[in-house]
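Check this:
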Amino acid sequence: MNFPNEFKDIVINYNNKNFNEALKLLNNLPKKEEFEKFKIKLYASIYFLTGKWTQSLTYHNKIVEKNEASFEDYNNLAVSLFNLGRITETITYFKKCIKINNKAELPYQNLGTSYLHLGNYEQAIDCFTTALSLNNRNNNCKIMIIDILNYIVPRTNQNNLLLKLNEKILNNFSDEKLNKIPKYELIIQLIDIIKDDFSKEEHKIIYNKTEIFRRNTENLNCGRHFKVFNKFSVIPEYCFSCYKVQISTKNVLGLIKLFFLFNTNYLENNNVRKCMVETRSNVKENFKGFIYCRGLDEAKKILEISESKLIENEIDYKKIEIKHGCTEYYEKHPNFKKINYNGEQEMSYEKSWKKYEKLIDDNSPHFSERVINPTINKINLSDILIIKNWLDYAEIVGDNSFEKIYSSNVSSNYLSQILKNQIIFRKEQF
């Protein structure tokens, strides 16, 4: 767009990302009808780039009303709607982007993300697959397809390598095998599938996840709770009723066994649970499993039954214990960590904190339309890639038990480059 001479300094500041100054100059422009469309365009773009979604939406709507919307305008309008939690409305505008340019991968990726949040998984896969056909190195689309496999078994492989790999894994893990703690030879076979099929350059993927969840329909909403804590150092009310049974295994082999135990659904209420390797530099224990509980009484019951299951399945563990909320809370509020097993807790929620929670909720709208589906009870591509990361992690921390499963040198760019320094620090500290 060719701007009038009066916009020269505004455009310079805009191009230099001095958005506050650009806004100030924009606000001081004289009110002239011939300036209006230029002002609307700049306001829309600045508010979009600074994450002010309500204002961005307002001005992008004005552009659409004037029938002057471009590919970028429709995309930015849809992204603004998405960040405001109005996900269903994004579909129309991402489709308009595709109509303008069906050779661009971004609108397919964005449309797929909207379908993903709405629980329309097959449609999401279709979009991500199309995006990959336009750019087979789009790692974001690969990761999102892999994430979807936690929730569904796709209806077709759609000539998509990721879905074909997932199908191989499903075929290797029958329902009968799922109810047993498998021999490590089976894990070796599955990792070899991944290794062989990802050997070609175009199929390389950095899957940067180290936690395997099994979820029911309950949304713990931890991302929101951490926003509250990180900004104001207060613990959200929800978290006071959150207790976790934590199981620390002796090595990575114990963690893999624990993962398969968690997959048997021995828990009466199908509690949210996860297995993970610890990457935080200030936290002890390398290999952990967590079962999330609603209240202390439930946690005590689950600890008892879990301990007997560990013994029954010969899972080597260091300890099993109950934790209150998250580790990050303890540094700011030491009393939160203390658990009174027989009555009122050492620390209770302060009602004055409610205002801080409201501030976060008012300024960071939730994805109100987001569908929370339970994860499927089948071993999938995501699980195997994460187990591969666990084996890489074991090598980095000096746990040689991984050699029983994977004898070759297992180096992960993700873990080595991003986490190695943290892990070394932890080893020295503890």
The chain is about 55% helix and 10% strand. Residues 296-312 form the longest helix (17 residues). Strands lie at 211-214, 242-249, 273-277, 287-294, 317-324.
